[in-house]
Write a structure and sequence with these properties.
6-stranded mixed beta sheet, 17 helices, about 40% helix, about 20% strand
Length: about 525
């Protein structure tokens, strides 16, 4: 009986595999952790792609223990992964160098392609000249082409991690349209590789023959090969379906199939995202990405470091909680939640701006805390940091609503931060909207299963699949007094960047230093 979907979610710090049925019941789950990246030079972030594949094989062994002979019940396999993490492979799908992650900060200033005069003039007029140069310098394609020309010459395909998995499983270099997010020559509005007149073609040029074939989400792109079957234990001939990015899967995995509901993803990169049948750019020149739902887009705004800041806080200020958690046999986050609950809404006027990683249109931005006083403790600092992420995402939602002429009536939450009820309540109070937490915390894995369930006919369409497979465990309603306070503090937050912009620029000039480049 083919009644299960094997969905794979390969992330920055771990790989997770799931077995779901058509009703959203999770029959098995496995998580394999690994170091997120290696950094041979300051600012670099690389990963051996074989670590992802080895984690996948280990996770399948764990599923065997939970569901006997599960391979015979798998009707389809689908893979969602981290985005903007590229792998150079040869004609057999073997990696030629470590993957360069989305976190990588290396720059390339060699052999930059010149823009036509009128094109550059238009960028200057709309304030996009420096962002264009920054984007061009971040092109990992050009970095490899300039510093490792032999690698680039030997590259048969330049793939996202999802494309790498698809190649390994099916023997075909095929990937989903909804997975093409990053520094690549992709036209997000047309959902195709960029033509010569598209700006991303100029920014991130890749020879067309090195790009994978593209498929619509939820389509069968191939079948498990005999070689993949021998490695994985999956049955040869099992369909493999195209999926989409982890953020897009999270959005549908929390039931956001219409534009009256937005998903707040509280992961390493925090984001707020909707599903829209209309293409629009929440921030000018920042595209809406293709949704895993055919004909739809995911307009979104991201906070680059997001809930990575929680890890930063634990490492820099949470030593006591770490020791206490070890003694009590509990997670550090449980004690951090206790810190939040002891601090009133608004953190006694302490406000943070979570620009730990500057945005494209704010290259000089830095993180900041304002409003310190003698009454503030580490607990106030931690809560203010969480509130600051909330303010930044509220600002993002307001941009989405204004540009798209839409209105969110409720929010869903996903990602590691959503495990905390205190954080969910803070976000409900800041936004002034109901916040729903999914029954299954692993929203990306569930979203991938929803995509596959439609593709293999387990569910008739995405609306039905989401209705059948997504369930909520808790609903948080805004506290009116807290919301009123947050509205006032948000007005202060909105003025932080404009007031601090010049100072950020001064800091940038004073502390700027040459980057280390590869030999």
């Amino acid at each position: 009986m083919k009644d299960l979907i094997l969905s794979v979610d390969c992330g920055t710090q771990s790989l997770r595999t799931f077995l779901f049925d058509s009703k959203g019941k999770m029959w098995a789950f496995s998580k394999i952790d690994y170091d997120p990246y290696s950094s041979p030079y300051p600012g670099w972030a690389e990963q051996d792609p074989e670590i992802y594949w080895s984690a996948f094989l280990k996770s399948l062994e764990n599923l065997k223990v939970q569901v006997d002979n599960f391979q015979s019940r798998v009707a389809g396999v689908t893979v969602t992964t981290l985005s903007d993490t590229m792998i150079n492979v040869d004609k057999d799908g073997n990696p030629l160098r470590p993957a360069i992650l989305w976190l990588d900060q290396r720059k390339n200033f060699l052999n930059l392609r010149k823009r036509p005069f009128l094109t550059r003039l238009s960028h200057i007029l709309v304030g996009m000249d420096e962002p264009f140069i920054i984007l061009q310098s971040e092109s990992k394609v050009d970095w490899i082409r300039n510093y490792q020309p032999d690698i680039w010459k030997s590259t048969d395909k330049f793939l996202q991690v999802s494309g790498f998995f698809n190649f390994r499983l099916t023997g075909k270099p095929v990937d989903s349209i909804a997975s093409q997010i990053g520094h690549i020559p992709f036209d997000y509005k047309k959902k195709s590789w960029a033509s010569k007149d598209n700006v991303s073609y100029m920014l991130f040029y890749v020879e067309p023959e090195k790009l994978p074939d593209l498929a619509e989400p939820s389509t069968v792109i191939g079948k498990i090969t005999s070689k993949a079957s021998a490695q994985t234990g999956l049955i040869e001939g099992t369909p493999v379906l195209s999926c989409g990015s982890d953020k897009s899967c999270e959005t549908i995995g929390t039931g956001c199939v219409e534009n009256d509901k937005a998903n707040v993803s509280l992961g390493t990169m925090a984001s707020i995202q909707m599903t829209s049948k209309k293409y629009f750019e929440p921030i000018k020149f920042m595209p809406a990405y293709p949704s895993v739902m055919p004909g739809a887009y995911n307009p979104s705004v991201s906070i680059f470091r997001g809930f990575w800041m929680v890890t930063w806080f634990k490492n820099e200020f949470g030593f006591k909680e770490r020791l206490d958690a070890e003694k009590l046999g509990i997670f550090e986050e449980n004690l951090l939640d206790e810190m939040i609950s002891k601090v009133p809404a608004g953190s006694l006027g302490l406000i943070s701006q979570p620009y730990w990683g500057p945005g494209l249109k704010m290259p000089e931005a830095k993180g900041a805390f304002i409003g310190f006083g003698e009454s503030h403790t580490r607990a106030h600092m931690y809560r203010a940091m969480i509130e600051g992420i909330g303010y930044a995402l509220l600002e993002g939602l307001m941009k989405i609503e204004k540009r798209g002429k839409v209105r969110a009536k409720s929010l869903t939450v996903s990602g590691g931060g959503s495990k905390s009820n205190d954080i969910c309540q803070i976000f409900s109070d800041i936004f002034g909207l109901p916040v729903e937490k999914s029954e299954i915390n692993e929203a990306a894995g569930l979203g991938a299963a929803i995509v596959a369930s439609v593709g293999i006919g387990m569910n008739e369409n995405f609306d039905i699949a989401a209705r059948e497979m997504v369930r909520y465990s808790q609903k948080f309603l805004p506290n009116s007094a807290n919301h009123e306070l947050y509205q006032k503090l948000f007005k202060v937050y909105e003025n932080m960047y404009p007031r601090l912009k010049k100072l950020y620029g001064d800091i940038r000039k004073i502390t700027n230093y040459p980057e280390i480049k590869a030999k």
